[in-house]
Design goal:
Elements lengths: L4 H11 L4 H20 L4 H17 L8 E3 L13 E4 L3 H9 L4 E3 L4 H7 L9 H5 L8 E2 L2 E2 L7 H16 L6 H10 L5 H23 L14 H25 L1
Parallel strand pairs: 2-3
Antiparallel strand pairs: 1-2, 4-5
Amino acid sequence: MALHPSLLALSEVALHCDSRAAARGIVAESQQMLRNAVEHREDEEALAAWFSRLVCDLVRCPAVDSQVRLTGAVATCDALPTSPIRWLGEDPELAQFLTEVGLYGDPVALTPEYAADAGLVSAHAPGLEIALNQRPPHMQMVYGLPDRAAVVDIQGHLLSPIRAIARWAAPAPRQVADRLAIGRERELLTAAEADALSQAWATGLALELRNWHTHVTSADLCWDDLTALDRTAYGAASRMVAQVCDSLGARHG
C-alpha cells in the first residue's frame, strides 16, 4: 500500500540529517505524521516498515553516525513508536540520543534470535521453544466473565509471540508477514496457522497504534480500558495465537 508522499519525503530528510537538533525535530514530526496516518486508517504494516526505516536512517545519518548493528523489530521493519530499539555492540551516545528524542532502547547480547533479526549467520537457529514459552496466557475470569482488571499486554502477549514464531519459521531478517509466508512455504506452518497469525499480527499492530495514538501504553492497559470492539478483537487474536502455539507444540515439540 502506497504511503502519503509526506512520509516518504521525511524519510529522505532523515537519511541526510546533520544535526542532533534536526534529528529530534524529525522524530517529533514523524510521530505527528504517524498519528495523522492512524487517523486516516493507513495500513499498519506499511507504517511500521516506514517508521523502522526512518529510525534506521537516523541511526546512520551524519548527525548520529552510529556503527552498531541494529536488530529486533527495527531491523525487520516491524517497529512501532512503542517498540524498544535493540542493537548489537556498544554506543552509549546512541542510547542517550534515543532518550533525547523520546525513543528508548539498549544493546543486547548476541543470541540466535537477535542474530537472525540482524541478518547474521549463527551456529544455532532460533528455537521454537522460546516462541511457545510466550504463549498468550488464559484470560482471567471472574464469575464466568473476563476479569475487567486483567492486564492487557499487546506487545508481550500478542505481538512478541507472533514475532518469535515467525522468526523460528523463517530466520531471515524480514517483516513478520513475509516470515509467516516463508514458514508456510517451508511447511513449518500450515496455511491455517499462517493465516491465523497474520490476522492476529495485523490486529495487534492496529491495537497498539491506536492506543499509542491516544497516549496509552500497554503497561497501563487493563481489560476495562478497551472498547467493546477492541476487547473482542484482542480476545480473538489472543485465542488464535494460543491455538497456533498449542498445535505447533503438539506437532514439533
